[in-house]
Write the structure tokens for this entry.
Amino acid sequence: MTVRFALLGAGRIGKVHAKAISANASATLVVVADAFPKAAADLAAAYGCAISTIDAIEADKSIDAVVICTPTDTHADLIERFTKAGKAIFCEKPIDLDVERVKACLKVVDSVGGTLMVGFNRRFDPHFMAVRDVIANGEIGDVEMVQITSRDPGAPPVDYIKRSGGIFRDMTIHDFDMARFLLGEEIDTVTAYASNLVDPAIGAAGDYDSVSVILTTATGKHATISNSRRATYGYDQRIEVHGSKGAVSAENQRPVSIEVANAKGYTRPPLHDFFMTRYTEAYANEIRTFIEAVEAKTPASPSGLDGLIALALADAAVKSVKEKRAVPVSEITGVLADKSVFQGR
Amino acid sequence: MTVRFALLGAGRIGKVHAKAISANASATLVVVADAFPKAAADLAAAYGCAISTIDAIEADKSIDAVVICTPTDTHADLIERFTKAGKAIFCEKPIDLDVERVKACLKVVDSVGGTLMVGFNRRFDPHFMAVRDVIANGEIGDVEMVQITSRDPGAPPVDYIKRSGGIFRDMTIHDFDMARFLLGEEIDTVTAYASNLVDPAIGAAGDYDSVSVILTTATGKHATISNSRRATYGYDQRIEVHGSKGAVSAENQRPVSIEVANAKGYTRPPLHDFFMTRYTEAYANEIRTFIEAVEAKTPASPSGLDGLIALALADAAVKSVKEKRAVPVSEITGVLADKSVFQGR
Amino acid sequence: MTVRFALLGAGRIGKVHAKAISANASATLVVVADAFPKAAADLAAAYGCAISTIDAIEADKSIDAVVICTPTDTHADLIERFTKAGKAIFCEKPIDLDVERVKACLKVVDSVGGTLMVGFNRRFDPHFMAVRDVIANGEIGDVEMVQITSRDPGAPPVDYIKRSGGIFRDMTIHDFDMARFLLGEEIDTVTAYASNLVDPAIGAAGDYDSVSVILTTATGKHATISNSRRATYGYDQRIEVHGSKGAVSAENQRPVSIEVANAKGYTRPPLHDFFMTRYTEAYANEIRTFIEAVEAKTPASPSGLDGLIALALADAAVKSVKEKRAVPVSEITGVLADKSVFQGR
Amino acid sequence: MTVRFALLGAGRIGKVHAKAISANASATLVVVADAFPKAAADLAAAYGCAISTIDAIEADKSIDAVVICTPTDTHADLIERFTKAGKAIFCEKPIDLDVERVKACLKVVDSVGGTLMVGFNRRFDPHFMAVRDVIANGEIGDVEMVQITSRDPGAPPVDYIKRSGGIFRDMTIHDFDMARFLLGEEIDTVTAYASNLVDPAIGAAGDYDSVSVILTTATGKHATISNSRRATYGYDQRIEVHGSKGAVSAENQRPVSIEVANAKGYTRPPLHDFFMTRYTEAYANEIRTFIEAVEAKTPASPSGLDGLIALALADAAVKSVKEKRAVPVSEITGVLADKSVFQGR
């Protein structure tokens, strides 16, 4: 079977997925739609697909799956519309910036019995997957503490910041999901500190650019997250996990790994410049996993619920920064009572 | 000039200092005193010094300096007694487990005009000193975020735990001092989470064995600390500092740095087994720095005030864990108002 | 323009090139031919191309380029035949095991004015290319000494060994080419030592499995090569280059770069298992470079002459092992007098 | 027992040994002698020993051991004189620049039954010792190939070069000994290439500054050595050993192991500046091993024979460079027939 894809949104991340779909022998990128005709035309030319519209794609029975890369405020509507149209859906995170809107959207997906996968691409990075395998194999015993370092090479434009929902919902959300992925338990409380050290314009826009977080679980496990919108040396993406029998870590990746030695010392090149190059393999693995779920008609993971929980953790972090206290996640949402959350993993 | 030393306390850390003093060409270890005659005799034999008593050392005008390695609850009394006797004092941390007792002790030292140095050995590790130099040289711009990882290879006996003042005053205190050393600013708030994951007996004794901390400064800088009483792979001691122009880190140290490659992969040996081997050079540098201060009659650093502030941070951390909130350090003590604290550095 | 490819030979390396051609947007894999119908059919199915024959491909005017991955003893004949048919040719190394046959073949290519590129894939590895760039940028000054370590994870079957021309022509030939690539000068003498340490069957077949080589240039530069048919830890591929102002090295690559720490130490996974996974990017870059030469109608590099010289160095090495002396390359062939050899680079 | 030492020669290496002796609790540095009164006086002041003369030391029955750090051309005479005087002798390499003179000297030592240890300090480096232990424990199976990289940070003055016996006897001699130490077999042939790339003045003095060597054993094992008098990044000292079951390597050492990351990449500081700092621990271990042999009255290792063999390998290398061929060590000396050479190890 070849899964026939429509791509909604031909921007930066849309191109990443177009490339991954095109390179997958089990998939065909059939059409692309974008509000900007030129963006759609460029992507269509680059990947040899047709240009279409939301309405036409909705009506096209030959399309099996839709990849949603449009602006965040359109995600929930598009998910509802295309799940009702019988399409399997891959949606970039977040589903929405509002927890209640996400809940409502997920109810629609559930009622239809549709397939929905959320784009937490880092779960599919081969290095992080290997870390997870080491944990799953029991090599480090019981997980005790997780440390996640995640720094962007530079701050985005303030216009982006304003629409982003803030650093916790835009950037840390990936780390919240990774913490859950590695801890193997739900988060109980979120304690966050955030400040404005990189770009005063970000502060003026009401957001932060530097973040430290402590997450705890009911059994006393810890995860810490360190985020910054600045890393002069490239896209800094590291995790380490300490357990009762040992530890496992995934170091940073760089495009070339040479070393130059001279009187100043030993120098290796900077890291990857950003997620498009750092997570190339992850995006390919991610879309392959989605295709496999579509073909096998099994639930996709990370699920809509995973997307909802990560968003709730972001909301708890925002509240923690304001109230200078540890915020129980239950204050944000009752979803964690749903024990089925780990079943799809 | 040769500085003539008396050593009080011939236990584990006493031996470390005896070795460092003996190897220093500007110092002579003249006498040792210990409540346990055998301990004193063994150390005296190993380092070729005499055995004496507290009283005799106090009365001995030929002794220039006293190194205090006795149990914590004797430190403040001994500092007061020997500073009045005109001796320069090097005291192992902490000065006392009670902030008010420390304050009173420091007033006595100040009134006498005595020399007091507190044993935060890590400031003298060549790798951490090099990190500090990189910061001081402006190579990474303004410091923004500090990450400290500090894990002991194993938990101490519960008897030790009970007398220790708890993990924050016994273990994290070093990291609190290191955070101040690297941030170059005083700590404004302490947020801590602690749990019991390693040894239930530690929990039964009312202490924790796993700690995550966020420290903040008035200008919005962050420091995070990750502590555990467990590290199967050796004594884990790492720091990294992120600034506006770059980052600097100090990696773990191991006694031998070979690598064996076979079908299972590439394996390097475990780290140093604990502080005596990991910080050998630091202890030598530390005692040399003390000797230089004694010889030059200049204030010693880290000072008694540094000891007091680190203890106050530990108290704030204890309070934060209990009250699940960010604790302003000003709730513990007013010392941070004293702007002279960084002058001696 | 899209370059239309025919692939001759559907074996292991044929599949590697089929994959690289298919993934290149400027190329189409049109047909494959193989003496074994099943091999051709499998590859055709996997990459969506037609099955054809040598004769039909020769006659097909729509085919622009031919990739030759057939057994070595067919290479020279196929090159001559297809260059006369006006096809651009990419041929796996070596062109032939006999220097005189290679010379004759290259004369045919020259007389036709055809495009011929030889498959020294390592020149296109991004890490080795970065090493070369460092040299070209003058960062390490004048190159003085090159060290190449190249170990296969395991010995091939003896049947392969017997047809291979021996370890120098089969395996070290890549390192000879890399030495030239990095030294930027022609080799003057070859001194080699070879022994049989890995598999006695290889010795019984008249070949070696363990090799050390010293190459020298007329200006006194050195290159050393260390080869083995055994590396329990994966495919070992390292280079380092020392110059008057510094050194540059490229370390080994592994599929995942995690590290597990426990009481036994710190362990990273083994290296890539062999060239197909280690040099994935190199193969893609290589075929892209060939396509660019075909499109631009410029000479392809590495050229047929590069292939000839590497073979001559292998012959010199064989002679050196037998005669236990440094063998001037001029004893093997006069090609090095041709100063045009570096022009295409 | 405390071994009482006399030190002959108060130059650079003399100071290194004075420091190691002083720091050893089982040894006392009693006297120093040097043809330059100021050199002797400085060292005597620094280490608290007396100044004496060769004659007085020879006559002093209280002296147990003599460390010879005088110019090379005095070594053999001093060894003979002091071994007859009943002193245990530690002599810096080489014993003499002439193989026949060394043989004669060793005969005298043997006839007296004296203790003689030769200063191949690298055998006592903890990292190289760990490599040797890995081999001895069978962790990498049978040793097959050894690679030694050894580069000095800079060329010595030409005056030193002229008296040194040439690079093979002065510098490579350490690597020849290390190759034997790691191979566990005697060297059968030496093939060397040497050129003049670093400093033309060295070439004008008849010596080389850049060396590549292949050593072989009777069973077909290989060792390669790469030497240069130039390494802009510090004192480059690496070994790797490949065996039938795996490989083991010892990487370079640096005084501080921090890393600075910025837009130019990740930079670690240069290596140790030279042998005095790189091999501090090795010198301490070396003198301790000598003291243990003196105390236990057991043969010291590395022995005089080890010194003789390394010199013979250097002579073979010189011959190989001139005659452009593999030189059997038996052409230089018959000592390898003496199977007792490995007994003391």
Remarks:
- The radius of gyration of chain D is 20 Å.
